[in-house]
């Protein structure tokens, strides 16, 4: 019979890596690699194959006893169909690329690019005055709306008004999270970046998000003043 671990609080350490596996850490192995935590200290590790791996489904990793217990009792396992061979091959191919086992440096390049993109985008949002949650290197950036009257629904709907924004606005997708997924006054808009975004993509998105932030009023910190462009000033004087 499967029992709780023999620790003081009789509780498991459960790690949700839906947004981190394949995206953060020196070799893309997720939160434990990033923070230097031994995976053997984590009782249950969960992740998805739909984000970094571009497939479907997900996984649960743990002790042999835990996995056997889930196989016999988890409805999602008992009543679901097996993953299709093409989906399984997609996952294995993506893992090979991330780990460099495909014989190329594509995985390392993508990991470096997603870190660079994430840190650039986060720093720019903060300079504009937004309250951005999370840590550096994370490709997921929640922007706090805080007040119920300025919740994520407004952030989503404002860009849909035609004639007030540049055409590229209609290609910026923002995921919103509100009550009951968050506390009533902590609704947020969530930005997710990838290694494929170019600097031009990000600058356009930042312009749009800044415009919406001004209209909705969710820039809660003073914006960092822009540095003077000496070269442009000299050309104007000449």
From TrEMBL:
UniProt topology in membrane: Single-pass membrane protein
Cofactor(s) the record lists: pyridoxal 5'-phosphate
Listed pathway(s): Sphingolipid metabolism; Lipid metabolism; sphingolipid metabolism
Molecular functions (GO terms): pyridoxal phosphate binding; serine C-palmitoyltransferase activity
Keyword Transferase: yes
First-tier enzyme category under EC: transferase
Domain Aminotransferase class I/classII large: 11-209
InterPro entries per the UniProt record, alphabetical: Aminotrans_II_pyridoxalP_BS, Aminotransferase_I/II_large, AON_synthase_class-II, PyrdxlP-dep_Trfase, PyrdxlP-dep_Trfase_major, PyrdxlP-dep_Trfase_small
Single GO BP term: sphingosine biosynthetic process
Residues annotated as transmembrane: 167-186
Gene3D superfamilies (alphabetical): Aspartate Aminotransferase, domain 1, Type I PLP-dependent aspartate aminotransferase-like (Major domain)
Gene Ontology annotations for the cellular component aspect, listed alphabetically: endoplasmic reticulum membrane; serine palmitoyltransferase complex
Cellular compartment(s): Endoplasmic reticulum membrane
Documented EC number(s): 2.3.1.50
Known catalytic reactions: L-serine + hexadecanoyl-CoA + H(+) = 3-oxosphinganine + CO2 + CoA
Keywords from the UniProt entry: Lipid metabolism, Membrane, Pyridoxal phosphate, Sphingolipid metabolism, Transferase, Transmembrane, Transmembrane helix
Pfam families per the UniProt record, alphabetical: Aminotran_1_2 (PF00155)
Domain of life: Eukaryota
Family: Belongs to the class-II pyridoxal-phosphate-dependent aminotransferase family.
Protein name from the UniProt record: serine C-palmitoyltransferase
Source organism (scientific name): Heracleum sosnowskyi
